[in-house]
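pasting for the record
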Amino acid sequence: MQCVRDGSERGVYAFAQVRFRLAVPRECEFFAQKASTEFEIFESSREREWGIRPKRFMSSRFGGTKRARRKRTPLRSLCCFLLTKGDPMSSMPIEPHAFSDAVVELLRGSYPERVAQLTGPLHLLLDGRHLGLENLYRMVLRDPDHGAEIVQGYLERLMEGDQLSGAPLPLAVARARIMPRIQPESIFEHLDPEQVAHVPFVNGTVIVFVIDLPQLTVSITTEQMIRWGMQPEDLELIARENLAKYTPELEIKILDNAAGGRAAIVSQQDGYDAARLLLGRLHGRLKRELHGDFWVATPSRDTFLAISQGPEPFLDRLRERVQEDFRRLPYPITKDLFFVTRDGVAGTAA
């Protein structure tokens, strides 16, 4: 911000100057509707500089109110909102219907070329394909003070992922970045399983595959897999190998219970915590700390909890916590426990 003096007979007043590049970021579009009616933005005589000041001081020298409205851009509206209303990043409604409406408005404002239409609370169609908003909604509930920022970042990654998924990527480039994720079978309620590269797992889950990029992950489609001349089992083998290399020295926190129970927590927060259930060395790494075979809970993508086989009151309390996390955390997987032995992973779901 920089305060300057105006030389007109209107007197002296302050305004904010904002320098910006010609490529105005689209993420500011959402805040255009939130700009204060008490302030207007006007163009200065110098290229790429804009001022913000109360409407009552507007003069024809700077283009006047009419011109300022005509030349309003997302960035200028955002600047106005910042000066008059505070931090916009806290402004996402919490009620599911209102939240969905706000996401659609943000989509339409930031990406007008995309067609977004609500089909129900936390469900919308984006260019004819289903986009569930439940994970995004849960993310915002966990950090409501930065709700709009979370939504905008999510949408940016979504659009970037769409662009990358449609581009041919050589296997030689992608191979080292192929990673596994465990997902509930319920994802196929809105996705065609024939279009998603995956293999079945246990506890009503499947293993899907993504290309891990620095700022986002891109799901591997069946079309991409066929283009590479591969089968789902080939992808699984590569993904498990890459997962083992991803964090070779896995940090595990061991917790002891007064009743004799023990738990091991993996919390890398890299999007693959639950997927580490697929590590081949998992049993060998944890059997000593957990006194033999053990249970693993993966209520969400970013949760991995290994648990000793007893005592029963300890297990009951942890099962309750797992069910609660499954209901509230983003990217839920399953509330059922996995049983890990030397021979592999077994499910417990009926």
